[in-house]
From TrEMBL:
<keyword id="KW-0520">NAD</keyword>
<dbReference type="Pfam" id="PF00361">
    <property type="entry name" value="Proton_antipo_M"/>
</dbReference>
<dbReference type="InterPro" id="IPR001750">
    <property type="entry name" value="ND/Mrp_TM"/>
</dbReference>
<feature type="transmembrane region" description="Helical">
    <location>
        <begin position="305"/>
        <end position="323"/>
    </location>
</feature>
<dbReference type="Pfam" id="PF19530">
    <property type="entry name" value="Ndh2_N"/>
</dbReference>
<dbReference type="GO" id="GO:0019684">
    <property type="term" value="P:photosynthesis, light reaction"/>
</dbReference>
<keyword id="KW-0813">Transport</keyword>
<feature type="transmembrane region" description="Helical">
    <location>
        <begin position="132"/>
        <end position="152"/>
    </location>
</feature>
<feature type="domain" description="NADH:quinone oxidoreductase/Mrp antiporter transmembrane">
    <location>
        <begin position="129"/>
        <end position="424"/>
    </location>
</feature>
<comment type="subunit">
    <text>NDH-1 can be composed of about 15 different subunits; different subcomplexes with different compositions have been identified which probably have different functions.</text>
</comment>
<comment type="similarity">
    <text>Belongs to the complex I subunit 2 family.</text>
</comment>
<feature type="transmembrane region" description="Helical">
    <location>
        <begin position="42"/>
        <end position="62"/>
    </location>
</feature>
<feature type="transmembrane region" description="Helical">
    <location>
        <begin position="329"/>
        <end position="353"/>
    </location>
</feature>
<keyword id="KW-0812">Transmembrane</keyword>
<dbReference type="InterPro" id="IPR045693">
    <property type="entry name" value="Ndh2_N"/>
</dbReference>
<dbReference type="GO" id="GO:0016655">
    <property type="term" value="F:oxidoreductase activity, acting on NAD(P)H, quinone or similar compound as acceptor"/>
</dbReference>
<keyword id="KW-0618">Plastoquinone</keyword>
Length: 522
């Protein structure tokens, strides 16, 4: 094989965005080694610039002619482009909100950035991995980096406890997932590429008990990554004990990579047991929506409340996966796009409040509007959007998911989703009421001692920028949602893997907001 043929088969241009992130990681690493602690003045902005450059490279690869690279190990199709973009954007916003937080904790910022960029690389590769070895290596790169980030605050016992729990449960999850894919490898006769596995299974008609066992183990590994009940036990403790910026990344970037893995692996490698994995995910969806929303009612910590909210949101997104239609996959992508901004916006507000008061207890938010109206407005909008209040982005995301599920015949799931959404609105509005409705004499001690609002302190300007981005995106992504709907629909239309499996349920082509805030879909 000559060099030209080898280069054509490798097709390395497909992983240009990941290459940009790797180069950025090396620049941050070498810069920190040369300059030392003073590198924290510029390394975060280099990291953000590299991530945005990777998103730009993804834009130019949107309709790439040949998306297969590295002999079929990586697929850069439109589906992976969108999910890789979500992972990169979540990392960029996480860096903006983490600069002040990490510096105030007294730990090294450059090391934090390097681990976060490594996790981003793992998530981006996982979003397009098309071969079992690539999937596992990408998954472990993301997971191990997440363990390190969780325990990054070495002086905080809660961070150490969270990291230990996450490591032990995550290692078990990885072992279970690896056993599932090893069974898949054996049943397919030694194939590792997903399309080759599916062809071998179909040729041998291997839809037996072995394939079902493999499916159960693989779903257990995926469910851990997306925090689906009953594989959610790590989520509340890890969210509460971890550094808040790390939690923000895990709740969006890691979850998006998990859903990308679920779509690609289940649709490509398990078509013979499609009914079985739809049944299992239906059970996971029901449990996640019920437990996530009901248990969130009793929480007293904002981080634990957002942890159970994240579990419930995973249940909503899985409705699109269960639908298995073009509209179902499009609704998943659209919801994850808007979830990126509203969830990271909520965590940005929690970070800012904890930096100024040193607490994240819900009762300590009482009367906050009197001391910090901007923070109150931003947190209220993000929480109401997570609850699905119109005309915010979360409302249109849930409408699209429920519409896709209804069209696919998942009537019970949609009705349950509507009921649990009402429950979620209660605990979100409870926080908003705590901030806004309380009288001056009911103000909490933390708010009474609230420091003067200053944005000129080191690291607070980037936090302010991330707050503004989340606020604007959450507010306008619902009212001006057509571009995001078009992006989600086109990503499914341009992905052959999904087009070969979806039924003839049409996706929403356009959504407009009328003066009476109604949704018009055709």
């Amino acid at each position: 094989m000559d060099f030209t043929t080898l280069a054509a088969q490798l097709n390395t241009g497909v992983i240009l965005p990941e290459g940009i992130v790797i180069i950025t990681l090396l620049v941050v690493l070498i810069g920190d080694l040369i300059v030392g602690r003073q590198s924290s003045q510029w390394t975060p902005y280099v990291a953000i610039a590299g991530l945005l450059a990777a998103v730009g490279a993804l834009y130019w690869q949107w309709d790439i002619t040949n998306p297969i690279s590295f002999l079929g190990s990586f697929n850069g199709d439109a589906l992976s482009v969108v999910f890789r973009g979500i992972v990169a954007l979540s990392a960029a916003l996480t860096i903006l909100m983490s600069i002040r937080y990490v510096e105030q904790s007294g730990t090294a910022l450059a090391e934090f950035l390097m681990i976060l960029l490594t996790a981003t690389i793992g998530g981006m590769f996982l979003s397009g991995a098309n071969e079992l070895v690539t999937i596992f290596i990408s998954l472990e790169t993301l997971s191990i980096s997440s363990y390190l980030l969780t325990g990054y605050m070495k002086r905080d016992p809660r961070s150490n406890e969270a990291a230990l729990k996450y490591l032990l449960i995550g290692a078990s999850s990885s072992a279970v997932f690896l056993y599932g894919v090893s069974l898949l490898y054996g049943l397919s006769g030694g194939e590792t590429r997903l399309d080759a596995i599916a062809n071998a299974m179909a040729a041998n008609n291997a839809a037996g008990i072995g394939l079902v066992i493999s499916l159960v183990f693989v779903i257990a590994g995926i469910a851990f990554k997306i925090s689906a009940v009953p594989f959610h036990q790590w989520t509340p403790d890890v969210y509460e004990g971890s550094p808040t910026p790390v939690v923000a990344f895990l709740s969006v970037g890691s979850k998006a990579a998990g859903f990308a893995l679920a779509i690609r692996l289940l649709v490509s490698a398990y078509p013979l047991v499609s009914d079985q994995w739809h049944f299992v995910f239906t059970a996971l969806t029901i449990l996640s929506m019920i437990l996530g929303n009901v248990v969130a009612l009793a929480q007293t910590s904002m981080k634990r409340l957002l942890a159970y909210s994240s579990i419930a949101q995973a249940g909503f997104v899985m409705i699109g996966l269960i639908a298995g239609t073009e509209a179902g996959y499009s609704s998943m992508i659209f919801y994850l796009l808007v979830y990126l901004f509203m969830n990271l916006g909520g965590f940005t507000c929690v970070i800012l409040f904890s930096l100024r008061t040193g607490t994240d207890q819900i009762t300590e938010y009482s009367g906050l509007y009197q001391k910090d109206p901007l923070l109150t407005l931003c947190l209220s909008i993000c929480l109401l959007s997570l609850g699905g209040i119109p005309p915010l982005a979360g409302f249109f995301g849930k409408i699209y998911l429920f519409w896709a599920g209804w069209q696919a015949g998942a009537y019970g799931l949609v009705l349950l989703g509507l009921i649990t959404s009402v429950i979620s609105i209660y605990y979100y509005i409870r926080v908003v009421k705590m901030m806004v409705v309380k009288e001056p004499h009911e103000m909490s001690d933390a708010v009474k001692n609230y420091p003067p609002i200053r944005w000129d302190l080191p690291g607070l300007r980037p936090l302010q920028v991330s707050l503004a981005i989340a606020l604007v995106a959450t507010s306008l992504a619902g009212i001006l949602s057509n571009p995001l709907f078009s992006l989600a629909n086109r990503s499914v239309e341009l992905t052959p893997m999904l087009q070969a499996t979806t039924t003839a349920t049409p996706a929403i082509r356009s959504v407009s907001v009328q003066p009476n805030l109604s949704v018009a879909a055709d």
